[in-house]
Design brief:
Elements lengths: L2 H18 L4 H10 L4 H13 L5 H15 L4 H10 L4 H14 L2 H15 L5 H14 L4 H12 L14
Helix pairs in contact: 1-3, 2-3, 4-6, 5-6, 7-8, 7-9, 8-9
Length: 169
């Protein structure tokens, strides 16, 4: 295949791949590599798409992080790990996380997760409930200090209490 034809094929495959959702540069490069394109063709395609703003790692990190925080209520460590695995540079990850967690405090997210999880832990003895809740929050990417605080707050709250409706007469 000639260079021009290979580049055209790579661009059309990349456009189809990007049509589903935003992708990082590394994701796009790995996809094109899997399709058998030469490194030079992949680099030209990525440079071209970056110039056209079809791929943008800052935008991708912000959207991915927002989705994981608002939708899944993940903690900082989990989102950092996922973005790093997607090939996002550390300075972009840190700036994105700082911005997102300023508007979505991690303590509030952890408390929301704990409240939902506690419903499935009814009937367990307190030590077992606390251990399972801590493990759950850890898997979701929350830091140890936030987990400890969440456990302390959750332990003092009756399970049937609904924080959204304080006093109903």
């Amino acid at each position: 295949m000639h260079d021009r034809e290979a580049l055209s094929t790579a661009k059309s495959q990349a456009l189809r791949y990007l049509a589903y959702r935003e992708r990082s540069e590394r994701e796009l490069a790995a996809y094109l590599e899997g399709k058998g394109h030469a490194a030079a063709v992949i680099q030209k395609t990525i440079r071209n798409f970056a110039k056209l703003n079809y791929i943008n790692d800052r935008r991708f990190a912000t959207e991915w992080g927002r989705q994981r925080i608002e939708g899944k209520k993940f903690g900082r460590a989990r989102v950092r790990h996922e973005l790093s695995a997607k090939g996002i540079a550390n300075h972009i990850i840190e700036a994105t996380l700082n911005s997102l967690y300023n508007s979505h405090p991690e303590r509030d997210l952890a408390q929301d997760c704990a409240s939902k999880k506690l419903a499935s832990l009814r009937g367990l003895e307190p030590e077992k409930k606390a251990r399972r809740l801590a493990q759950y929050l850890q898997r979701r990417g929350f830091a140890a200090d936030i987990i400890r605080e969440t456990l302390r707050v959750s332990a003092g709250k009756p399970q049937h209490e609904n924080p959204a409706s304080p006093d109903q007469d």
